[in-house]
Amino acid sequence: MTDITANGAFSRKTAVALGFFDGLHLGHIEVIRQALMKTEYPSVVFTFNENTPLPKFRTEEKIITHDMKLFLLDRAGVDHIYAPDFNDVKNMTAEQFVSEILVKKLNAGFVSCGYDFRFAKGGQADADALRRLCQPLGIEVCVVPAVRINGETVSSTLIRKLIKSGEIEKANELLGYELTYSLEVVHGKKNGRKMGFPTINQLIPDGMAVPKFGVYKSITFAEGKEYPSVTNIGVRPTVTLEKGEIRRPVMETHIIGFEGDLYGKTVLVSLCGYMREERKFSGFDELKEQLSKDKETAVRK
C-alpha cells in the first residue's frame, strides 16, 4: 500500500472508500470491501491523519494506533491511502470536496461510505448529498448500511465499552480481528525474569482505550514467529515503586517458548481472551504460583 497524500492526481479512475475508520471494525471493513470489489479500479482509502482528528473524535479514546490502521489496511489489500490533515479540508463545502478531492485529486469512478457518513464544513453534508453530487459526474456511490452482529450494531463506541470492561472476545468479534498492539519493548524491573517468567514490557500510549486491568490470553509475534503468551495489563500493584515513580498502565507479556532479546524492538501482541482480574499478592512467591496457573490456563484454553 502506498501513501498518495502528497502525490499528484490519478490519471486513471479509482475506487474510493470514505471514512475516518477509527477502529477499522467490521462496519468499516464492509465500506472498504465495496471499493476493493471494484477490481477494474485501484483502491484508495480516504481518511485523516492522526494529528488533527475530527472534532467528534477528539474526546474519544483510540481503539488502534494509526500505524496499526495502516498495517491492517495493507493486509486487507488496499492499494493506496490518502490521509490529509483535517485542517486542509474542514472548511470545504460539499461541492468543493467532491470537485477538489474526489474528482481532481482521486479521479474517483466509484465511492463507498457508511450510512452515517458526514462531510463538508461542520459535517453538514451526508451520504445522500454525496450521491446527489456524484451522480451527474458519473461517479457511482455505494452507501453501506449498518452492520449488525447478534442483533447489535457494530460501532466504535460499543467496542470501546467492551474493551474497557474486559469483554475482549466480544470486542474482537465486532472488530473482525483480535485487538492488536504494535509497541516498542521497553526496559522494566526484570522481576518476571527473576521468578522464571521473563516478560516484555510495553507502554500503552496516551489517548488509547485501555483494556480492563487484568490477565489476558494473548498471541505474540516475535522474530517472525507466532507464540502463545500471557499478557497482564495494569499498574503492577505487587511491585514496590521507587521514590517519585508513578503507576501507569503497562502491558507485561510472558511469551511461552520464546528466548531472546526484544528490547527496543516493535512487537505485536494480540489479546484473545480475559482470564482474571489484576490483584495484589502477598509477595513474589504467591505471584509466581499464580503465574504458573495463568500459563497453564493460556495454553489449555
Q: Mind describing the biggest β-sheet?
A: 6 strands, parallel
Annotated CATH homologous superfamily of the largest domain: HUPs
- What is the string of SSEs from the N terminus onward? EEHEHEHHEEEHEEEHHEHEEEEEH
What's the CATH class label of the largest domain? Alpha Beta
- Cα radius of gyration in angstroms: 22 Å
Assign an overall shape: elongated
CATH architecture term of the largest domain: 3-Layer(aba) Sandwich
Give the proportion of residues in helices.
25-40%
According to DSSP, the number of beta strands is 16
Biggest sheet strand line-up: 1-4-3-2-5-8
Overall residue-averaged pLDDT value:
86
The CATH topology assignment of the largest domain is Rossmann fold
When the domains are counted, the total is: 2
How many helices?
A: 9
Write up this protein.
The protein has helices at residues 26-36, 66-76, 86-89, 94-105, 127-134, 156-164, 168-175, 191-194, 284-300; strands at residues 2-3, 14-18, 43-46, 80-82, 108-114, 118-119, 125-126, 140-144, 148-149, 152-153, 180-184, 200-203, 214-222, 225-234, 250-255, 266-277. It is of the alpha/beta class and 301 residues long. The chain has 2 domains: 2-152, HUPs (Rossmann fold, 3-Layer(aba) Sandwich); 178-300, Elongation Factor Tu (Ef-tu), domain 3, CATH 2.40.30. A 6-stranded parallel β-sheet has the order 1-4-3-2-5-8, with helices on both faces. α6 (156-164) runs antiparallel to α7. The longest helix is centred in the last third of the chain and has 17 residues, at 284-300. It is elongated, with a radius of gyration of 22 Å. The relative contact order is 0.13. The model has no long low-confidence stretch (mean pLDDT 86).
